[in-house]
Amino acid sequence: MGSLPQPNLPVIDLSVKNLNFTSSSHVTTCDEVVRALEEYGCFVAIYDGVSQELHDAIFRASQELFDLPIEVKVLNTSDTPMHGYVGQIPANPLYEGLGIENATTKEGVENFTKTICPVGNESFSENVLMYTKAVSELDQIVMRMVAKNYGIQEHYESLRRATTYLFKLLKYSSPKGDEREIGVVPHKDTSFMSILHQHEIKGLEIQTKDGEWIEVDPLPSSFIVMAGEACMAWTNGKIEPTCHRVMMQRDKDRYSLGLFTFIRDLKIQTPQELVDNNHPLQYDAFDHYKYLHYHASSEGQKSKFPVKSYCGT
């Protein structure tokens, strides 16, 4: 008997030119998005909001930033765990990350560039801002589809106004030996949503509910849209976060980008429309940023399901 075919993640075309919000096909696309998120916690979006030129410029700049001395990179600090420079971690020795908070605002991007590359940063700032605004639009397209499908549009609009974006530049160094090595250990994101953008070198793997790992190829104009733990709490468990990892082979260094959504100054609360006798409330309202600190604490790290430990009913 031959081996069973590998499952693939759903691929959904969300190109702006194809999005007609009043057409019957839009309803079908909404259904596809929600079904993919409910089944896998993620999907591959084909999205034309980022030009090839901008894509190339961002990845070129990313490589230049990671080539900076470590004493410069560590200047990228944050009061929020994992939101600044992350690297030199024994559990993930191949991994480094640089974080830009409030990344869809001019102030947020300029704060980062003034700290890390004080000279000649104007074009970098402009490119990052163009990129984050384009990808944040993809996030909002997806979330409006989810809200429409669940009949909770008003609740999403208040969340959207409280959303802040963290942009992460990610590097995974090529392992020295011939064996595959872990670039980043299996984990679920603490974000509300995450949008990952691979470049040339594959390595991202998604775990299905059956425990199988799916390798995600870097397709042209493709973004991996992924639910985080906060989205699970908000949807009363309808959408579960994706467990994912990065596996590296001796080839060359791997660069990727991530735009992560967080909710500030508004408690995340499950809409009443998603609660009934068959679906009792699973999570109490909670402060997203306080949860991030709990997740990074020794108590949070020991918990198998930190978001349930933190705010589960």
Explain what this protein looks like in three dimensions.
The protein has 10 helices and 11 strands. The model has no long low-confidence stretch (mean pLDDT 92). The strands form 2 sheets. A 7-stranded mixed sheet has the order 1-2-9-6-11-4-3. With 313 residues, it is α+β, with helices and mostly antiparallel strands. It has one domain: Jelly Rolls. The protein has helices spanning 24-40, 52-66, 70-73, 106-116, 122-150, 153-161, 229-234, 288-296, 298-302, 306-311; strands at 11-13, 42-46, 95-100, 163-172, 181-187, 193-198, 204-207, 213-215, 222-227, 244-248, 254-263.
Task: Describe how the helices and strands are arranged.
Layout: E1 11-13, H1 24-40, E2 42-46, H2 52-66, H3 70-73, E3 95-100, H4 106-116, H5 122-150, H6 153-161, E4 163-172, E5 181-187, E6 193-198, E7 204-207, E8 213-215, E9 222-227, H7 229-234, E10 244-248, E11 254-263, H8 288-296, H9 298-302, H10 306-311
Parallel strand pairs: 1-2
Antiparallel strand pairs: 2-9, 3-4, 4-11, 5-10, 6-9, 6-11, 7-8, 7-10
Helix pairs in contact: 1-5, 2-5, 4-5, 5-6
